[in-house]
Amino acid sequence: MNPRPSATPAGGELRTREVGGGTSFHASIDWMVAVLILGAALAAFTYPVLKYDDPWVFDPYDPEFSPAIFVPVFLFVYGGKHLVTAIRGTLLRRRFGESVAHFDNTAVKPGEALRGVIRCPVHFVPTGDYEIRLQCVQKISAANGNLRDSIREEQTIHVSPQFADPRKGIPFAFTIPRGALSTTVPGMRAIDMLGEPGDEVRWILEVKAPLKGLNYYAIFGVHVIPASESAA
To answer: How would you write 110-144 as a 3-class SS string?
Structure first.
């Protein structure tokens, strides 16, 4: 599929909205989380070593054995996951710069079309199609009280690199389903079409393309307003 941005409607100038990519922001958050968790893991490992002569007992049948020895291991693994993601985000930023999404409208409602282009300041030639995915993600409260992400809507299109120059714009076109949830601010609860309450909702637009070495990737936020509202 090779979507193309819509033309300016008759009778007025098309209002557009520019949204910067979130790769750098996410990389910064991952760096911060990785440093905090790995620091806690290091402290959890070194404190018993400094305080006790024989801090770690690995024999589960020994009376001195404590499951607490697995805490530093868990923290190292969890912190390492964020460290890998942070390094990848930093490499993406250095390789491709900051991509920008240009939307044809300042806001979109359920049942309307979401069109625009994604521009990257760096030229590259993918070895395959661009894959652009639109998702509606809602945080759901689990029975244990934890929050998890649930994908409520998802659409994917593919754009041939023959029809798209990343510096001029990679075109996309989606239709927001009627009855879809609208974007909420963090912490705000949403009401779905069945009247059931849920946690905060966010819409994201992702684009990726295969390359030799590091693949291209960028992510953007999409603002979906309720059908009863009008774009400011």
So the answer is: CCCEEEEEEECCCCCCCCCCEEEEEEEEEEEECCC
